Amino acid sequence: MEVRDGLAHSKILPLLRHFYEVTVGDKRQTLSTLLSSLSSDSQQYSVVICCRGRDTLEEVVVEVEHILEQLPPINDQVFVLHSDMDNAACEGVIKTFHESKTTSSGLTVLLLTDVCLQAGAFQRLPLAFPDFIINFEMPSTGKMYMQRCLSLLGKTQRSAGKLVKSNNLQIHAVITFVDPGSDVLMLRTIESTIGAELAELLD
User: For the chain, what is the mean pLDDT?
Assistant: First the structure.
């Protein structure tokens, strides 16, 4: 993957790098390519994948598990948060995700819906800067884009650590999948909301 240079970083979320990737056809193939790229880097990464609703979430969970099964056998782990879980269950998943970030030798993946981000668990237990946030589905508004980022970071923007490169991707990056036919207008809305252009990932 390459990153197009020269684009401004967000004024509102300065500790993150914001990218988009054009998806032509099935977004699941784009996700497969991205996770395979991260896995081939032989490093430990935490990834959060955001979906709008439960139906898409369930489809993506199946796809992620299938993708990881095709990769070399390392200690990848997958966690899921959905709207039927109460705060106690959500906190349990978040705590385990935290622990796995330090014990897993591969990818630690958390999948969730937008409804889950409003749970009190995220206010008490922020995810402490996951390495990558992937917007599998375009958020419905610019405000929801902000909510996805800030909820996952605990709304504190504390020490982001060093921004280093992995396969030319920046750690602590938000990557939004964009359908060139239906998502362009919302992409511009997001850029207006965060005060910066999203850089394009190039194959």
Answer: 78
Virtual CA dihedral for 24, 151, 120, 135, nearest 10 degrees? 10
pTM of the model: 0.83
Non-local (6+) Cβ contacts of 91 within 8 A are 121, 124, 125
The pLDDT tens digits of the residues spanning 96-123 come to 888 887 777 788 999 999 888 776 666 6
End-to-end CA distance of the chain: 5
Q: Tell me, what's the pLDDT at 62?
A: 94
Give tens-digit pLDDT for 64-91. 999 988 877 677 889 998 888 888 888 8
As a three-state string, the secondary structure of the chain is: CEECCCCCCCCCCCCCEEEEEECCCCHHHHHHHHHHHHHHCCCCEEEEEEECCHHHHHHHHHHHHHHHHHCCCCCCEEEEECCCCCHHHHHHHHHHHHHHHHHCCCEEEEEEEHHHHHCCHHHHCCCCCCCEEEECCCCCCHHHHHHHHHHHHCCCCCCCCCCCEECCEECCEEEEEECCCCCHHHHHHHHHHHCCCCEEEEC
Q: At what angle do helices 142-153 and 184-194 cross, to 10 degrees?
A: 60
